[in-house]
Amino acid sequence: MILSYWSRVDTPIRRRDITNAIDSANVFLNGLAAREIILGGRCLFLEEENPVTDLMDGIVRYHVMVTPPTPAREIDFALEYDPEYFKTLFT
pLDDT of 72-82, one tens digit each? Predict the structure, then answer.
C-alpha cells in the first residue's frame, strides 16, 4: 500500500483524497481476504491519530488493521474403535 500511495506525497490533503485512499485500501484488503491470504483487514482514518498540527505539517496517518491466518501448530486426530460398523457385514 505504501508503494500505491507514494505518488500522493507532496499533493494537497483533501477529504476526497483521504476517502479515496481508505476505499482503495479496503478494496485491496478485501481482495486479499477473498483469496484467503488474510482473514480480514480494514483501513481507517482516525481523528485521534491525526492531530491538526500534524495535518498542518503535511503528516497523514492511516490505521490499517490486518489479521493473517495463523499456521497450524498442532493437529490431533482421535482414533476410536467403533463396533457398530460390523453391521455392514449383514446388509
Answer: 999 999 999 99
